[in-house]
Design a protein that fits this description.
The complex is a heterodimer of chains A (485) and B (136). With 485 residues, chain A is mainly alpha-helical. Chain A contains 21 helices and four strands. Classes of the chains: A mainly alpha (485), B alpha+beta (136). At the A-B interface, helix 2, helix 3, helix 5 and strand 3 of A face helix 1, strand 3, strand 6 and strand 7 of B. The structure holds iron/sulfur cluster (2 copies).
Chain lengths: 485, 136
């Protein structure tokens, strides 16, 4: 029986909540959460491949693009990265690893986020290009491709290579969870200081045969005593199960506080030196705007205009121009100008690129606010749509246990969801202003307001763009090219 | 060797069973050759915008004769999931010529499903798109 290290009084520990805490500490807790998600995923794949071709009638599209995305961001906001905890891909991977043990280490040159950042941008791009939201078939194919990619990557490479270096959803969750209120961390550093085994990272092995692992340590290379924040943490609970002193909890903290400081982080290093993670923060932030831009009316006018100027008749080059502008040109210009002002006007000693990199983390909250507003909108307005879709799927297999589909079940009216959207955007803005001010204080002690001003302007520009997008008429269309502009 | 995924085998079996059921149902539901009915449609206003959209339907059989006495239910769906469908019913104005109205609630692309029950009792499903609906 493990003896529990006490928790600092000021902190809430989810593991101490009666019932829930015990459940999460059960060694099969993760499987328990993954099993229903896997079953639903299989149902989505089958329905996507063989069910109705209309997106609103199919479980693949409805659950993926309305419910999964919305619930994901809301849980990240309210708690933490619990979706990685319940990830069905890892359940399948673990089952496969009972048959095949990987032997290779992930190549040193690829131990960064560049591949996953590129995949993240690529998914945003293909989402628009192939109208994934409108295609049950391609949504199902995407889910299948995801399962295969996990099996291939983690079939060859040890530890959680896929989660840490490849998975775009994981990176989304990692960067978003930097603003989450819960974090898996040690309860008492003093206990770790005298810990002889370090099982949280090494894992536990059978006493008689040390090659037999009975409990994994952290596969993401996050050593608990030096772990800072949620970056790269899949909430897999392994460290919690492994620690012999019961010294790891799911503790509360000030959301986004980890973005304000720059300590050396276990398994990550310094944020201020990780250009790849800075790029992830920027794709996350500016990608939120591009993704929302894809569903409002003005995008079609812009696409038609670019198509005419380029004299092209396919959507790919037009979208490439839009993505290039929003994910490369806009961030480079905005951050470059803000960094230059911080240097010249506020007197920061850092060079332009390190300055831009450092402050890029300050934009994560506003980026998260935009994702919340967008996905939260679909989630709230389509909240109950999974019911008639499930009813109809069951009715089609002559098993109408849920009754006839009630298509009038939708969700919150759009006019009620809009204030919620605005609330999320304001929350994101407030978070970004706080973080960037904190960074400015640390950067230029004497004149923090001067250092803060250009970054506050960047935050306000992003906020204003998001509000403008929110006020545009939503227009869900397929490719503009066959619409005659 | 790791001991953490005892449930994995059972999960996979259970999931595959569900898959098989859904697969069977899905495959069956896509086929279905009904009577050869041709549907021509026209929407007003042009270009379409949100709000009430008039839909004129012209049903003919394989020999181009008007199909009279059909019961037609219309269902309008957006191409994005999570949106409520809209429903209406068509009335026959002349032999083979029907008229209906759908309240399109959002700009974008709409797919209209026609659930047609012929006078003979046979059922036919048809669909067409109303693309590029603009806000009013
Ligand atoms: S196993 Fe890890 S978390 Fe637990 S006491 Fe030792 S160092 Fe700390
Ligand atoms: S083992 Fe690592 S990834 Fe899993 S919860 Fe602990 S720190 Fe996070």
């Amino acid at each position: 029986m493990k003896s529990r290290a006490s928790v600092p009084n000021s902190q809430f520990d989810l593991l101490l909540v009666p019932g829930l805490g015990r459940l999460l500490q059960w060694r099969h807790a993760r499987s328990l959460l993954q099993i229903p998600v896997l079953i639903v995923s299989v149902a989505m794949i089958v329905h996507g491949l063989f069910g109705p071709t209309l997106a609103p009638k199919n479980l693949a599209t409805t659950l993926t693009w309305v419910h999964f995305r919305g619930a994901l961001v809301l849980v990240l906001l309210a708690a933490g990265n619990f979706f990685c905890l319940a990830c069905p891909f890892m359940l399948v991977r673990n089952a496969a690893r009972r048959l095949f043990q990987p032997r290779l280490n992930w190549p040193r040159a690829l131990r960064n986020k560049w591949i996953s950042v590129a995949l993240f941008a690529l998914i945003l791009f293909t989402y628009e290009l192939f109208d994934l939201w409108a295609s049950p078939l391609w949504t199902a194919v995407l889910i299948v491709a995801y399962f295969l990619a996990v099996l291939v990557v983690d079939g060859f490479f040890k530890h959680a290579s896929f989660c840490k270096f490849v998975c775009p959803i994981g990176q989304f969750n990692f960067i978003a969870s930097t603003v989450s209120p819960l974090e898996i961390k040690v309860r008492r550093q003093s206990v770790c200081n005298v810990c002889a085994t370090k099982d949280c990272i090494r894992g536990r092995r059978e006493a008689a045969s040390p090659f037999v692992v009975t409990q994994r340590g952290c596969e993401l290379a996050l050593f608990q005593p030096h772990k800072v924040g949620n970056m790269d943490c899949t909430f897999c609970l392994d460290c919690i199960h492994a620690c012999p002193h019961d010294n790891v909890g799911i503790l509360s903290r000030v959301p986004a506080s980890e973005l304000m400081t720059d300590p050396r982080r276990s398994g990550i290093g310094f944020f201020s030196r990780r250009k790849d993670i800075g790029a992830l923060a920027l794709v996350f932030t500016f990608g939120a705007l591009v993704n929302a831009f894809g569903m409002v009316s003005p995008v079609y006018a812009l696409e038609a205009w670019i198509g005419t100027r380029l004299n092209v008749h396919s959507e790919a080059p037009v979208l490439a121009v839009i993505f290039g502008f929003f994910l490369l040109v806009e961030p480079v210009v905005l951050l470059g100008v803000a960094a230059w002002i911080t240097r010249t006007w506020a007197g920061s000693k850092r060079a332009i690129v390190p300055l831009a990199l450092r402050y890029s983390y300050g934009l994560v909250p506003i980026g998260f606010g935009v994702w919340l507003a967008h996905y939260g909108f679909h989630f709230l307005t389509g909240l109950f749509t999974f019911i008639p879709v499930t009813q109809s799927a069951l009715a089609r297999i002559d098993w109408p246990i849920l009754g006839e589909p009630n298509w009038s079940l939708t969700g919150l009216p759009r006019n009620l969801a809009q204030p919620v959207e605005l609330g999320f955007l304001l929350l994101g803005l407030a978070g970004s202003l706080l973080v960037t001010y904190h960074l400015a204080e640390g950067d230029v002690h004497e004149r923090p307001y001067r250092a803060f001003t250009p970054w506050a302007a960047v935050c306000l520009i992003l906020f204003a763009s998001a509000v403008w997008l929110m006020l545009q008429p939503m227009e869900m269309r397929g490719t503009f090219m066959n619409m005659g502009g | 060797m790791l001991l953490e995924t005892d449930g994995a085998q059972y999960v996979c079996r259970g999931s595959l069973a569900i898959a098989a059921i859904l697969l069977a149902s899905g495959c069956g539901s896509r086929s279905g050759a009904g009577p050869a009915i041709k549907v021509e449609f026209e929407t007003t206003p042009q270009p379409p915008h949100t709000g009430p959209v008039g839909i004129a339907l012209h049903l003919t059989d394989a020999s181009a004769r008007p199909v009279s006495g059909a019961h037609i239910d219309l269902e309008g769906d957006m191409t994005h999931a999570g949106m409520a469908p809209v429903f209406s019913h068509a009335v026959e104005l002349q032999p083979g010529r029907y008229r209906s109205q759908l309240e399109l609630t959002m700009p974008g692309d709409w797919v209209v499903l026609l659930h047609v029950k012929l006078a003979s009792g046979e059922q036919v499903e048809k669909q067409f798109e109303i693309t590029g609906v603009r806000s009013q």
